[in-house]
Amino acid sequence: MRTITITSVPGYNEWRIASRECLAQSIPPENIIWQSSESIQDDLFGHTEEVMPAPKEQVKHSIPKSVLMLFKYALCHQDASRFALCYRVLWRVIFENKNLIQLKTDEDILQLNTLAKAVKRDAYKMSAFLRFREVALDGQEHFIAWYEPEHFSLEVKLDFFQTRFKNMRWSILTPYRAAHWDTEKLVLEDNPDPSVCPDEDRIEKYWLTYYTNIFNPARIKKSAMLSSMPKKYWKNMPETALIDDMIRNSDARARKMITDGNKR
Amino acid sequence: MHDKLIQKLEILSDAAKYDASCASGTAGKRKAGKTDKTGIGSLTGGTGICHSFTPDGRCVSLLKILMTNYCIYDCHYCINRVSSSVQRARFTVKETVELTLNFYKRNYIEGLFLSSGIVGSPDLTMESMVRIAKSLRIDHGFKGYIHLKTIPNASPELQAEAGLYADRLSINVEMPTQLSLNKYAPEKDLGAIHSSMNTLKDKIAEHKVDKTHTGKRPPRFAPGGQSTQMIIGADGSNDKVILGASVQLYSQQKLRRVYYSAFSPIPDASEVLPLKPAPLVREHRLYQADWLLRFYGFTLDEIVHDDMLDMDHDPKLAWALRNRHVFPIDLNKADKLMLLRVPGLGARTVQKILAIRRYTKLSWMDLTKMRLPLQKLKPFITVSDYSPAIHLLDGNNFELQFKQPKQFELFGA
């Protein structure tokens, strides 16, 4: 039995290196215990191989890009079983069926897709619901956001933020990691201090004004709103503080629209 | 920025909320280049991100505002018509540009959706709108999304210039027939609207080519195409007339989207309008039918059996109920077009089925794992280990089991 400990989050690179070694030694998935350093558990069998003999000859396995992309997303999931799952799928793609990924109803593929989909959604919501606030830092405008993704989604969205806000100085803080961008270089910082995030922003009142007025009180569809923007996202979105009042007043506003309309 | 701006924003976003289109469409990819030291923004290639949702279930993707709600026209369904007593305001070019950039930098929006009342003349109005788009693109290197609602009757030159800066252009037809326009929007001419659309269509096609004969790429011209909107239930047009108009717009003018907006009462409404809002379910059915026409290979006559869509069942199910003889369909054998006709199978599911089928036979268990709506599918399909009991399709109460207990959710976008 081989035990592999992943020491970083999300752990994609470590997993890739370890997987490559295990493949080279033809270690089947059932003989590996994957753990991450936060959740180290005792190996029930008490038997760990310490030395990894160098592989004699490297066999090159070609893995379809679509599979690697799925791994990339799935490995950003916080589920601790992700490393074992991805290795098992890797093994099966190589030795069992190179088209395994197409068997959408295979248990492993279902699970892999579930993880990848959850991360994609989480990452998408991050690119959507993250809000920057402006501060002056060394006399220059700097934008700071605090966001709490469910998974390790910061990694997934770094490219997006670097591209979209290329010429802006910004910092995105999440509970596990921050990314700082100075228009040229990206610096990552683990476990950042959330208190550097400002409480207000000079433009926010205009955003709140816009949000209140663009909504049509005659067509309340709260469940549609909640399915796309569940309450768990609300606390870092300033406009959501207005929602309860908007719904409470909507009847009166809509009725006013109609009574005004009836003044003939 | 000072507080007068808040007041303007209140008026001019309130006035824009009656427009149904809210999402930003697909307009290719775009970003600031390596050497670009000032530009901001990107288009990611897919449809735009929904940055928030309002309690009406709609996605907030763009800063959707009117440049001004002053208007010389008197369209009855419009809150901004000249005879309405609504409060008026006007944004300057600079204000609009700054608001857009400030919102964008805070990750509130994907870009700007600008329309306007007609102030002065169509050309003067259009010119200001183009200046806003141009300033964003040229002065500020803005790479985000811009949708301009072009002004009917503005000069072709201005419309052509608009296309250089905007990702999408749209002109609202508002009503499916000239007869209805005469009654509700006396200044609007369907022929002129179509000819504007035609001009833009040709421009878009012209600029779509990869390279001109000189080997250069032509500049982008409204890469997101054109869209339009029709108001539903203000005039007497039935669903067949409305969808017929859509089919024509899609095929002849190559429109990307037709939006349907159920008429809802507006403050200070004109007398010719109905007092009651049109049912939202009708709007929803029209969107479903529109989808079937564009992506599922249905024809207009197949979808609209009578003049109106069935309000109780979605149009695909309604078609299946009228055409029971073609069912059940074998999911392991049927071709793509036939699979797309099965109630409960969406385009994506059909893709999945086709992919799985290449390697293995589909069983009932597979359908469960794919989390398909089995109850709905059951009477219409056959798989390797299942075929429907014959009475499922023939029973007199067959239709009843599909009755929706509540209204559908509307499309968010």
Automatic annotation (TrEMBL), chain A:
Entries under InterPro entries matching the protein: DNA_repair_put, DUF4130
Keywords (A to Z) from UniProt: Nucleotidyltransferase, Transferase
Protein name, please? DNA polymerase bacteriophage-type
Task: Please list the residue ranges annotated as the DUF4130 domain.
Answer: 82-239
Recorded GO molecular functions are:
DNA-directed DNA polymerase activity
Which one Pfam family would you cite for this protein?
A: DUF4130
List the source organism: Paraglaciecola mesophila KMM 241
Report the EC number(s), separated by commas if there are several.
Answer: 2.7.7.7
